[in-house]
Amino acid sequence: MFWRPWAYFLCFLLRMKDNNTPFEPEVYMLRATFVSLICNVVLVSIKATALFLVNSLAIAVDLGISLVGLSVSVILYYSIKLANRPADLFHNYGYGKVENVCEAMEGVVLIGIALAMSSQALTHLFHPRHIEMPWIGFASSMVNVSLNFGGAFYIFKMAEKSSSPAIHAEGVHYKLEGFISGVIGLSFLVSMFLSSRGMEGSARFVDPVAALLVSVMVIIPSVDLAKKSFFNLLDASVEESSQMEILKQLSKHLDRFCEFRDLRTRTSGRKKFVEFKLVVPEDISFREGHKTVRVLENDIKTHIPDSEVSIKMVPCEKDCSFSAKGLRCPYL
């Protein structure tokens, strides 16, 4: 693909293309925001220049999206710094939810821009205007496509390494912008084709139609992004794969406890919190019960990255079938 050289160039600049040396998640997150910031500055410059020369509503919509992206990149950089701060007296579970706030903010702002630009597009449908130098618009759109997909490729790599929802949302944003720039570039091709066939009247409608289409393309994923982030702000449980991993680790030590109760999980940005009660035989020593708890905590933390595990050990109430029949507890 034509955008891959940009992605590999970015990887080369940050020495990440062939370097498999593990880093702290914060390092990957900061590198992703740095690339996002640089790309957004370049994109805003290109689109602002193209808008001045071409006077296209579709480019204006695209520029508005990039301005939002640039603002979010700056906010995201400082938010990641905050999100990686350790828990303290006032925030016992840390600052991870800042990432979800960034997601929600980006989704809401993009929805607002899309609604505003769609109303402008509808107005221009009734009063279409001539587009100046559409070939410049097409050329700039193709450059934007390569930058957006190249940036998305790198940011998704960093999101995978850091497990950060905010970085993943930024990758989705870049990928969406790539498709939008592609649609705008296609609209300029259609406009030039119609003009070359002497259909100037029809060519005038291409730009507002493209702007309206772009607005719809922005609204749908932005609503999903805002909905998902707001849901995560409400202490959503961890994803199904992590829940199954917890049960898998518990099943590996079934011979060391009677049962578990009140399993609860929650997410805070990329961090996951797990807590439950572990019922152990009443007659075992505290040391043995604590050893079982520590083994389970370590196993769950190992298989679920960025997780905090809290297990409360409680004694068996001897209400099981073994106790009712006077049999010896099988877990002793």
The arrangement of helices and strands along the chain is HHHHHHHHHEEHEH
Gap between N and C termini: 62 Å
Multimeric status of the protein: single chain
> Quick one: CATH class of the largest domain?
Mainly Alpha
Number of strands: 3
Structural class: mainly alpha
Number of helices: 11
Are there runs of 5+ residues with pLDDT below 50, and where? 16-21
Strand content: 5-15%
Structural features, described:
- The protein is mainly alpha-helical and 332 residues long.
- The protein folds into two domains: 4-233, Cation efflux protein transmembrane domain (Alpha-lytic protease prodomain-like, Up-down Bundle); 240-324, 2-Layer Sandwich (Alpha-Beta Plaits).
- It has helices at residues 4-13, 25-54, 57-83, 97-126, 134-162, 165-196, 200-203, 206-233, 240-251, 286-303, 321-324, and strands spanning 259-268, 271-280, 307-315.
- The chain has a three-stranded mixed sheet.
- α3 packs antiparallel against α6, α6 (165-196) runs antiparallel to α8 (206-233) and α9 (240-251) packs antiparallel against α10 (286-303).
- The longest helix has 32 residues, at 165-196.
- Mean pLDDT is 78; it is low at 16-21.
Based on the model shown, name its key terms.
332 residues; mainly alpha; Alpha-lytic protease prodomain-like; Alpha-Beta Plaits; 2 domains; three-stranded mixed beta sheet; 67% helix; elongated
Reconstruct the topology from this structure.
Blueprint: H1 4-13, H2 25-54, H3 57-83, H4 97-126, H5 134-162, H6 165-196, H7 200-203, H8 206-233, H9 240-251, E1 259-268, E2 271-280, H10 286-303, E3 307-315, H11 321-324
Parallel strand pairs: 2-3
Antiparallel strand pairs: 1-2
